[in-house]
Amino acid sequence: MAQSLFKKTGSLFRFMLRRDRLRIPLWLIGITFFTLIVPIAFVDLYASQHERDGLAETMANPAVTAMVGPGDLENYTIGAMTSHQMLLFTAVVVGLMSIWLVARHTRADEEDGRIEMIRSLPIGRVSNLNATLLVLCVTHVILALITGFGLYALGIESMGLEGSLLYGASLGGIGIFFAGVTVVFAQLSESSRGTIGFSIAVLLIAYLVRAVGDVGNETLSWISPFGWVTQTEVYANNHWEPLALMVGVAIVLGVLANYLNAIRDLEAGFFPARPGRKKASAFLQSPIGLAVKLQCTGMIAWAIGMLVMGVAYGSVLGDLEAFFEGNEMMEQMLVAEEGYTLTEQFIPSLMVVMALLATVPPVMAMLKLYGEEKKNRIDHLLGRAVSRTRLMGSYLIISVVNGFVMLSLTAIGLWSAGATVMEEGLDFGTIYGAALVYYPAMLVMIGLAVLFIGVLPKLGSVIWLYVFYTFIVLYLGGLLDFPDWVGHLSPYGYIPELPVDEMEWVPISILVIIAVILMIAGFIGYHKRDIEG
Amino acid sequence: MSVLAVNNLTKRFGKFTALDGVNIEVNEGEIYGFIGPNGAGKSTTIRVLLGILKATQGNAKIFGQDAWSDAVEIHKHIAYVPGDVNLWPNLTGGEVIDLFVKLRGNNNKSRREELIQKYNLDPTKKCRTYSKGNRQKVALVAAFASDADLYILDEPTSGLDPLMEQIFQECVLDVKSKGKSVLLSSHVLSEVEKLCDRVGIIRQGKMIESGTLSELRHLTRVHMLVETKQTLTGLYELEGVHAIEEKDQAVSFQVDAEELDNVIKHVSAFGILKLESTPPTLEDLFMRHYEQKDESEVGGAS
After folding, report:
1. Can the peptide bond before residue B156 be classed as cis, meaning omega within 30 degrees of 0?
2. In terms of domains, do B76 and B100 share one?
3. Where in this chain does the record put each ABC transporter domain (chain B) (predicted)?
4. Residue B210, beta-bridge partner list
5. Does ipTM surpass 0.90 in this model?
6. How far apart are CA A398 and CA A408, in angstroms?
7. Which residues in chain B are closer than 8 Å to A189, comparing Cβ atoms?
8. How far apart are CA B195 and CA A324, in angstroms?
9. Contact residues, chain B, for A380 at CB < 8 Å
C-alpha cells in the first residue's frame, strides 16, 4: 500500500525536468547572474572603505532596516554590503520562483485535468506531489551550490568560502521552505490561482513580520522565515542554525501535504469554494466596469508597489549629503549646480526611474485590450451594442487615470518618507511637480500603445523595448556620456529636470499634442481593422 | 422581407481567400440553417455579419443596415452565441449573463431566471470552473434572455448533452413562434433538419447549395428497398441507380430523383411484394456534395 502510493515518482520526476528543461535553468541563470553581478558592481562603486562607511551611514535608519533587514554596518565590507542589501531581496525572488514552479506542477495541472490522465496510469496517488518536491529540492540544491561557489570564485577578500556557501544555502533553504508552503496550499485550495495567492500572501506576511521585528522587536523576526534568512549573518558571524529551521519546517509541511493529498479526492480542496455573485453589480455592467474589474487586483498591487518604491527612495534622502561626499562616481553623475543642495539635484535622477516604472502599469492596462482580443473575449462585447470607440475609450480612460495615480503615488511616497528623515523637510509641491512633469511623456507611451493596438497589434510588446531603451539611456546616460540625441529619441528626454531646471512649457505641450495624435491614429486604425480570433 | 442579406461577400486574409462570393438571405420569421465542414468559412461569415471582420468585397446587410458601419445600431437587435465561448475566469456565470444582457440594452429579468432554471446552470460559479457545455449555456441564456429580432447562433450545441439540446431546440422554436429570425450554423444535421426552413451549404468559402429542404432533396437520391416475386435483374444497366446491395430476398439501392419514374416502371415488372422508400437525409445530401467535389477535383487534377 505505502509503496503503491509513491509508484513511479521517479518517472514523473524525470518528466517534470523534461517539461522544465528551459524554465528552471533560466530561473537559475537569472538569480545567479543577479547575485554575482552585484558584488562586482560594489567593488567598482565603493572602492575604498571610506566610501563604504559613507554608505553604511545612509543605511543606518529604520526605513532601510525595515526593507532589507539588519546588516553588519560596523564592519561594512563588500561581503557585508552584499549580504545586507541583496540576500533578503534575492530570497524573496527565490520564494516566488518556488511558489510558481510548485503551483504549476501541482494544482495547475490538476485544475486543467492533466493529473487525471496521469492518475489513470499505474501511478501512485502522491507520486506527482513528491516528484514536484524532488524537482524543487534538486533545483534549490543546485542553486545553493552555484551561487555559493560562484560568490567565492569572485575572489573578493571579504567573501570567504564559508560565508559564500552559507549565502547560497540560505537561498536554497528559503526556496525549499516556500516549496513546502506551496504544496500545502496546493492541497487546501481548489484552484491554482488560490494556491499562488495564498502562498504569496504568506510570503508577504513573512516579509512584513520580519520588517516590523527587525525595527522593533527581534523575537518577532524569529517567527518569520525571512527573519531566519537575515539571522544567518552571512559574511559576518555565519550562523548555520537558521538553515536547519527552514529545512525542518519544510519537511513538516511536505509530510502534511502528503497526508492531505492522500486523503482527498482528485480536484477537490479543503477550503470551501465560496459561491460567487449570482448577479452582476450595476458597476460591472459596462465595458469600462468590466475592464476595471478584470484589472483591479493587478492595479492595486502596482499601486502599493509604487508607493513602497517612493518610500524606499525617500528614506535614503536624509543622509544623502554625507553619502555623496567622497563618492567620485556619484559626483560625476551629478554635475554640481549652484544654488541647489545635492539632494535636490538627486531628485530628477530618481524621478526618471520612478516615472519609467510608473509607466509600466498604464501601458499594461492599455495592452490588456489586445490581450482580451487574443483570448477571443472581445467578440462578446463588439458582438453587442458596444462600439469600438467606446471599447477602446474605456481602456484608454483606465490607462490614463492609472498612469496619473501611479505617478502621484510615487511622489507621495517619496515626499512622505523624505520629509520624515530630512532635517529641514521637503516641499511637497516641488516633489509632486518634479514627478508630474513626466506625465506628458507617459501619455506619449500610452498613445503609442493605442497606436500599436489599432494598427499593428502583434507588435505591441515593442513598447517594452522602448521603455527599456529609455531607462538605459536616461539612467546611465550621465555615466556613459551618451550624445544628446540618444536621449532625445525618447519622450522622457525632453522633460525638464525639475526642480533644478526651469519649467519649460513648449516641449511639454508638444508631447501632449503628439500623444493625442498617436491616440487618434490608433482609434482610426482600430476602427478599420479586423478583430483577431 | 429579408432580415439579413449577404451579397457576393468575399473575405481575404492576405493571399488566403476565406470567403468567395457568398450569398445568403434570411427572411423574417425564418430559421436558416448554415452548414459546412470545419474551416469552410461559417464562422468567418458570421464574424463579418457581426462587424468584427471587414468584408474585402461585397456587402452584408442586417435590417437593411450595413454590418460593418452600422454595427452598434444593428447589435441592439441581435443576439449572438459563439461556438467557442471564452469567458473571464474570475467572473461568475450570473455576472457574465447580466453584463451581456445589459450591453445589448434591454433586460428581461424574469426570462433570465427561467432560462437559468431550464438550462440547469449554477450562476454563482466562477467561469473558470465551467465545462465547455456550461460556458455555452451562459452564452445561450444571455442570448435568449434578451428580446432580439435576429439570433445568430454559431454551432451553439457542440458541447451540450442531448437533454440540453432538446431545450435549446425549444428555445429556437419559441423565438420563431414570436416571428423572430434565426441564423443557425451547425454540425448536427438532424438538428438543422428538424429546425430549419431553409438551408445553405458552404464549402471552401463558396456557397454550393441553398434552398428549402424539399428543394434540396430533389437534387439528391431516394433510398429504396424492394422485394419482388421474380428475381430482380437489370438494375445495373439502368441510369441513375447507385449503391446496389442484395439483402436476403430484397434489394436496396439509391435512385437519382429524376430517374425515379423509369426505375419504378422497371421494378414493377418483376412483381412487387414490398417497397420501402425513405427520403434522403440532410446527411446524404451533405455527403454527396463531398463525393462530387472530390471526384471533380480528381478529374481536374489528371
Report:
1. no
2. yes
3. 4-229
4. B200
5. no
6. 15
7. none
8. 82
9. 82, 87, 100
